Amino acid sequence: MDHVALFDETSLACSKLITKRYSTSFTLGIRTLDPRFHLPVYAVYGFVRWADEIVDTFHDHDKATLFADFRRQTYEALDTRFSLSPVLHAFQLIAHRYSIDRQFIEAFLRSMEMDLEDCNYNQSLYDEYIYGSAEVVGLMCLRIFCEGDVALFDRLREPARRLGAAFQKINFLRDIRSDYEERGRVYFPGVSYEHFNDAVKRDIEADIRADFEAGYAGIVQLPRAARLGVYLAYVYYLKLFHKIRQLPATQILGGRVRVPDNTKLLLLVGSYFRYRLRTI
């Protein structure tokens, strides 16, 4: 193997390691995809995780400066098809291989920048944030799964967006307390932390349920090589959503809702059998 190919493979392996260290659930989902999709999706996850870490974790550093440098290096890597950062080098390899739209990348970076700002989320900013932080990540993965089939991508674009939106809104509900305590914000427009109650919670849940239904319609149309992995993410978030729906608003504010590891394993087994029986 020549040294350029070795550098490429090592960079992709770094993204795989990042995924395994930061998200056991996401790693499990990737492993249920066809093996040819593993490294590409790891590369996408590594990129979005590193950006998210800058805005959410490094409080003792100048996060705005760090993120500006990350943004500059991202576009430099895309333009030159090279980076000494393994995460960015892996991502640019996959972005070029699967024609991931620059617009998706820019929307994602903009949403991460919004987390550096002290802003109140009206409907417009809320929609922009969800699109950039979640929907476009789904669209990046959809580019990979469609493997150049533009017609299939266009047909599944809207369901992929709705599924990503559902996942992000559930995250917002699950993390409403920590987002308020650590960042002083509630992402849901027109909702204050002090007045979050059961009626408000039901309205949010109705919106999420509609996104889930639209997203599922796309899952069953995915290529079979990608379907099980996406379906597993869907049933995991659906389980989390059902747990949240069963709790009063006061309990959601009291602590983070989780899906136990043994339940995740059962969801994996059930999803696998549904996939093998071709009921999904």
Automatic annotation (TrEMBL):
GO molecular function: geranylgeranyl diphosphate synthase activity; squalene synthase [NAD(P)H] activity
InterPro entries linked to this entry: Isoprenoid_synthase_dom_sf (IPR008949), Squ/phyt_synthse (IPR002060), Squalene/phytoene_synthase_CS (IPR019845), Trans_IPPS_bact-type (IPR044843), Trans_IPPS_HH (IPR033904)
Superkingdom in the source lineage: Bacteria
Any one GO BP annotation for this protein: carotenoid biosynthetic process
Keywords: Transferase
Official protein name in the record: Squalene/phytoene synthase
Taxonomic lineage of the native organism: Bacteria, Pseudomonadati, Bacteroidota, Cytophagia, Cytophagales
